[in-house]
Amino acid sequence: MVVPDTAAGYPGWLDVETANSWQADTTMNVADLQGMIAAFQAAGATTVGAYSTSAQWNPITGGTSTAAAGSLYGIPDWIPGASSLTSAEANCSLQSFTAGPVAVTQWTGTIDNDYACPV
Predict the structure, then answer these.
(1) Does residue 113 contact residue 86 with C-beta atoms inside 8 Å?
(2) What burial class does residue 59 get, using C-beta atoms within 10 Å of its C-beta: 0-12 exposed, 13-18 middle, 19+ buried?
(3) At 30, is the pLDDT very low, low, confident or very high (cuts 50, 70, 90)?
(4) Which of 45, 69, 92, 100 could form an SS bridge with 7, CB 3.0 to 4.6 Å?
(5) What is d(CA 30, CA 71) in angstroms, rounded to the nearest whole number?
(6) What is the pTM (predicted TM-score) of this model?
(7) Distance between CA 54 and CA 83 in Å, rounded?
């Protein structure tokens, strides 16, 4: 197996969780995240998504499910929080917090596990 040596070979994921440091001003947080997307794209990444939940994303960004959110609108979601594979599979049908596809879900057991949602 050949491992890609450029950013274009991997998706980039923005870790948007309330446990991280964020400003009270959601406009600043959105600008920060848009800057991160621009940096990923400048490095050659073709896919950038968000690892978060609606309960975390919305207070941090003020909600970005309309085109007014610029580059955050429509990016793929990676949704954690399930406790089993069956629940992770079901989470693929959750409403997206970015208006993009739910691409990956996560469930926890002994270790964190990820499930790629069908396209």
Answers:
(1) no
(2) middle
(3) very high
(4) 45
(5) 9
(6) 0.90
(7) 17
